[in-house]
Structure formats: C-alpha cells, structure tokens
C-alpha cells in the first residue's frame, strides 16, 4: 500500500530541511570565495546544487524514501570532505549534519551513516591537533544517541497516528480514507503498467437479522471475525476496507488468471468459518469489477456495486462479476 500521508510528511520535511541547508550554506560560498579558499567554496556549491537537484527529483518522481537516503549519504560525505579539506574552520558543521540525518532516514540507518562519517573524520582529518579527539567522539556519540531516542519515539507516534488515520476502530480493517488513497494509487499503477486489478464489494447476507436476534454486541463480534477470516485468506498485497455497516471492499492490486476460483474459494472459506451464536453459517455476496482503461474510482465502485446487486437478486451467497 502506498501511504500518501507518510509520503507527504516526509516530503515536507525534506523540502524544509533543504531550504534550511541551502540558506545556511550559501553565505559561506561567498565568504570562502572572498577569502581565497576556492576548494571549500567549490565543495559548498556542490552541496547546494546536489541538494536542490535531489529534492527536485524527489518531488517530481515521488521517490521520497530513496532520495532521502541518498541525500543523507550525500550531506554526510560532504561534511566529511569539507572538514578534511578546510580543517577546524568547518568543524562545527558536523553537528547539524549528523542531527539532520535522523530526519532523512530511519533512526538505525542514521546511526550507521553517522558512525561511518565519524570514523572517517577521525582517521583522515587533521582537526585533532587543535581539539580533543576524545571530546569529539563522546559529544558526537551523545548527540547521535539523543537524537536516535527522539527520532525513534517520533516514528512510533507517527505509526500510531497512521493507524488511527487509516484503520477502522471496530474491525481493524482499513477505513474509507485508506481505501480512497489506495484506489487512486492502484489506478495510477494500472494506467501506467496495464496490470489487471480487481475491486470487490462484499456484503454479509441478512446481517440485520443477526443484530435483531442477537444484539449489536454479537453483530460487532461477527464483523471482527469476518475481517480476521477474510484477511487470513487473501494475499500479502491485497487490502480489505470497511465500506460501511456490513459492507466491505477488497482491493487486489496484483491479479492472476484464476480470479473466479479465488473469489469462490474465499466465499466458501467465509461460509465455512463464520458462524452466528446458533452455529448457523453467515454467507457473503460478492460484486466484483476488474480494472479497465479510463476507469475512475467512482466508476470502479459503481460497477462492483451493480454486480453486488445482481448477486443479491440471484439469491445471495454467490460471486458476480461486472460486465466490463
């Protein structure tokens, strides 16, 4: 599943960090050029151009995670180079670069990148004739560990927010917000790659009778059981969403030529495993629509919904495919 919330968040951080970096480095290009330190000025210009190019590529190509990792390595290599070339005058740049690495990549990855950069500086730089090598190691270790703890906590909080934003609180299935985002991503991928994809609306047959006879608490538990059973029988990249009430949507982004067999098998498994308190089987009707060129989210859902109505007209507990 392509998580647009996470992508937008990471992209906003990337843009903000790049603006701060460019604004911070730019004055030193002029200062070092006027001071005759052309090597340092060239390194600074390279860093600025590299950051701008990579961020621009991330924005247009939408490859946020990959580009963020490249930028993290790039700025660490840049600070190592400038410290080795310019000595003590560029020493303090190590700290903001090491801290910003945790914004760009996962905390454990940032620790690794910082460790490599730190060891390289210790081994090849001559700044330790002026400052204490032990102090450098300890202060950078403390900085990295403190930011690591903060970044790990932030990542945990973001995952919690992500779950609240995309998950139905009752059943644990994905919600309509997640469905809308994933359908758009699936449509883009289908139009680009021409891969056959499927959308199914699943409706629990006569579910109102269950609520009326056993109460809503039992009905809620049956919905939870339905989600657990269904998710255990679908593929790794298939996604189940609660569409409303007892209706669910199943999105299959990578399909085979055996879809009729798959849906029949899923329907049979649900009928076999999902029971009401009296032990009677609870059946499910399926309305299935495949992706066709120029499909929109609305037309895709409409075709699946029309197929679902046909399934109900045919006595329920069956799978009906939309006529593309």
Automatic annotation (TrEMBL):
Taxonomic lineage: Bacteria, Pseudomonadati, Pseudomonadota, Gammaproteobacteria, Alteromonadales
Residues annotated as domain GGDEF: 195-324
Top enzyme class: transferase
GO biological process, one term: cell adhesion involved in single-species biofilm formation
GO molecular-function terms, A-Z: diguanylate cyclase activity
Originating species: Shewanella livingstonensis
Enzyme Commission number(s): 2.7.7.65
InterPro entries: Diguanylate_Cyclase, GGDEF_dom, Nucleotide_cyclase, Rev_trsase/Diguanyl_cyclase
A cellular component annotation (GO) from this entry: plasma membrane
Keywords for this protein: Membrane, Transmembrane, Transmembrane helix
Required co-factors: Mg(2+)
Superkingdom, natural source: Bacteria
Transmembrane segments: 12-35, 41-60, 67-88, 94-122, 134-151
Catalytic activity line of the entry: 2 GTP = 3',3'-c-di-GMP + 2 diphosphate
PROSITE patterns: GGDEF
Pfam families assigned to the protein according to its UniProt record, in alphabetical order: GGDEF
Protein's name according to its UniProt entry: diguanylate cyclase
């Amino acid at each position: 599943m392509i998580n647009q919330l996470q992508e937008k968040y990471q992209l906003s951080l990337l843009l903000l960090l790049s603006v701060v970096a460019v604004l911070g480095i730019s004055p030193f290009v002029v200062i070092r050029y006027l001071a005759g330190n052309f090597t340092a000025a060239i390194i600074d210009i390279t860093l600025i151009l590299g950051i701008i190019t990579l961020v621009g590529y991330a924005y247009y190509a939408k490859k946020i995670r990959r580009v963020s990792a490249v930028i993290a390595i790039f700025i660490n290599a840049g600070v190592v180079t400038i410290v080795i070339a310019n000595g003590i005058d560029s020493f303090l740049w190590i700290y903001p670069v090491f801290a910003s690495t945790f914004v760009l990549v996962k905390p454990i990855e940032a620790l690794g990148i910082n460790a490599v950069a730190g060891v390289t500086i210790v081994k090849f730089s001559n700044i330790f004739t002026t400052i204490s090598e032990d102090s450098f190691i300890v202060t950078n270790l403390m900085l990295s560990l403190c930011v690591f703890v903060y970044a790990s906590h932030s990542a945990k909080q973001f995952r919690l927010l992500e779950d609240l934003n995309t998950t139905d609180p009752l059943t644990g299935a994905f919600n309509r917000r997640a469905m809308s985002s994933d359908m758009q991503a699936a449509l883009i991928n289908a139009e680009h790659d021409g891969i056959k994809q499927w959308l199914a609306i699943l409706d629990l047959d006569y579910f109102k009778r269950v609520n009326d006879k056993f109460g809503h608490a039992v009905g809620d538990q049956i919905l939870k059981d339905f989600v657990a059973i269904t998710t255990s029988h679908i593929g790794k990249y298939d996604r189940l969403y609660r569409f409303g009430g007892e209706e669910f949507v199943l999105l299959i982004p990578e399909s085979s030529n055996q879809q009729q067999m798959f849906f029949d098998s899923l329907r049979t498994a649900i009928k076999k495993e999902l029971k009401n308190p009296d032990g009677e089987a609870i059946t499910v009707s399926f309305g299935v629509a495949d992706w066709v060129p120029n499909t929109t989210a609305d037309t895709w859902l409409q075709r699946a919904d029309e197929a679902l109505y046909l399934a109900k007209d045919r006595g329920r507990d069956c799978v009906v495919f939309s006529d593309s």
